Amino acid sequence: MTDPNWIASALSAARPQAVAALLRYFRDLDAAEEAFQDACLRALKNWPKNGPPRDPAAWLIFVGRNSGIDQVRKRAKQAPLPEEDKLSDLEDAEADMAERLDGAHYRDDILRLLFTCCHPDLPATQQIALALRIVSGLSVKQIARAFLVGESAMEQRITRAKARIAAAGVPFETPGPVERSERLAAVAAMIYLVFNEGYSAASGEVEARAPLADEAIRLARLLLRLFQTEPEIMGLTALMLLQHARTPARFDANGEIVLLEDQDRSLWHAKMIAEGLALVDKALRHGKPGPYQVQAAIAALHARAAKAEDTDWQEIDLLYGLLEQMQPSPVITLNRAVAVSKVRGPEAALAMVEPLEERLAGYFHFHGLRGGLLMQLGRNAEAREAFDRAIALANTAAEAAHIRMHLDRLSGASGGKPASAAMH
Amino acid sequence: MLYAILCYASEDVVCAWSKEQDEKVMADLAVVQEKYARAGKLGPVARLLPTTAATTLKRAKGEQVVIDGPFAETKEQFLGFYTLECDHLDEAIEFARELSAVNPSGGSYEIRPVGRFNRTNIVA
């Protein structure tokens, strides 16, 4: 099988593993990338002629490493290595590669590569850009498009990020168990950032940015294959799958946000939901709950409800309570208040929301939810005021339009449909 | 004779397909299946979710243990299967050839006679 599509998929599938191993050899991101590029060019020439290798990643690592060493030797004016084009596969070279096949080694390589991209000195946007460029292999142009900036600005951002990492130095020794789990947590957070960069896109941007959500899921699956028994990585993967599954129903024909409870659930992506639910079940069996698992469990309850009315809000209230304990945050309390409004009514929810005012005064969803609760309680003047503040803080035209709809209802009639959810 | 046609390929490669590529492959495979379905030869067909969603029950020292993921790490994973009623092996091989021709995953199809087959009414 040497058709160009297969070769492209094979190169892209092998990329994280190959770049990660090359990074270990050369201890320098640019050198690792250059060596990988070179190996890919050779693969494009060699594979159609000699057939694809049995293990594309091993081939690319071997060829990339030689070409990298070759570069070093050329610079040192020494004799180059013999051409490896004659190799159809790496039968003889495989002994060399034996250490690569050591599962733990390979795991730490990829974890190191991902971890390199989430160096704490890098701001979130640079972490994401770097991971997409280096691990996923997206072009600068594709990344620039996703971030809605020019290509040269993105090029600069990536160059700056790489310079910072080179200055900071990447630890190359094999991590101990504590360090490994810290790295894993940092990488999980970075992957979720990539996802949200795609998922939080406004309707007009979905086409350009949605691929980031797909890419994040791919990275999470990669990580999960390496750390098969980590319930939080299962939770993260499930969370993203369950949220992403709703994408086809999240915007209406006019590009306006459709709230979770109003979404046409038949448009949800059934296969992603099935995978997400399976992962939540697997994770919970470990009895080691963590924030991603709890959020995934909440998303799972939404996914399991065939109609919005079937949603188990009581359970969601409990899960948000658990999440509040794990990572106290006013935004989580705000989300919990949505569940509380369904279970115990708008008054109880409002009592929960009011104390958050100081910390969430600049947050669109705070005023949106507060307005909705006030409207349900018939306190229309206060509701209008809250909605006005929400509109002023709206991040997207669709968010503003959604609040305007409530304002129209307020002026049109009394009561109306309760506003809800920061969730959509 | 009923045959199971078991599809093995690298999950890394298949997961690297874009949504459009994946849909194109599925549509091409559906054309092949349709022909055999119309002839009344095609039985149940399944595409499995990624192995990361898998759980394995095995016995270790007489105890049953549930582990995450598939039992063995392999280069190619079991991704799905077809069942086909055939008059002879050549017909099953021909079906696999047609599937393979439109499947760019570079994987393989294992053609395995079915020994026992329970017909059920569950609708997935």
Automatic annotation (TrEMBL), chain A:
Q: Which InterPro entries match?
A: DUF6596 (IPR046531), RNA_pol_sigma-70_dom (IPR014284), RNA_pol_sigma70_r2 (IPR007627), RNA_pol_sigma70_r4_t2 (IPR013249), RNA_pol_sigma_r2 (IPR013325), RNA_pol_sigma_r3/r4-like (IPR013324), TPR-like_helical_dom_sf (IPR011990), WH-like_DNA-bd_sf (IPR036388)
Taxonomy, superkingdom: Bacteria
Pfam families, sorted: DUF6596, Sigma70_r2, Sigma70_r4_2
Where the record annotates domain RNA polymerase sigma factor 70 region 4 type, the positions are 114-165
Gene3D superfamilies, from UniProt? 1.10.1740.10, Winged helix-like DNA-binding domain superfamily/Winged helix DNA-binding domain
Q: Which NCBIfam families match?
A: sigma70-ECF
Name of protein: RNA polymerase sigma factor
Query: Native species of this protein?
Result: Ollibium composti
From TrEMBL, chain B:
Q: Where are the transmembrane segments?
A: none
Q: Tell me where on the tree of life, at the top rank, the source sits.
A: Bacteria
Which InterPro entries does the protein's record reference?
Dimeric_a/b-barrel (IPR011008), YCII (IPR005545)
Q: In what residue span(s) does the YCII-related domain sit?
A: 1-118
- Gene3D superfamilies xref list: Dimeric alpha+beta barrel
Q: Per the similarity annotation, which family is this?
A: Belongs to the YciI family.
Q: What is this protein called?
A: YciI family protein
- Organism per entry: Ollibium composti
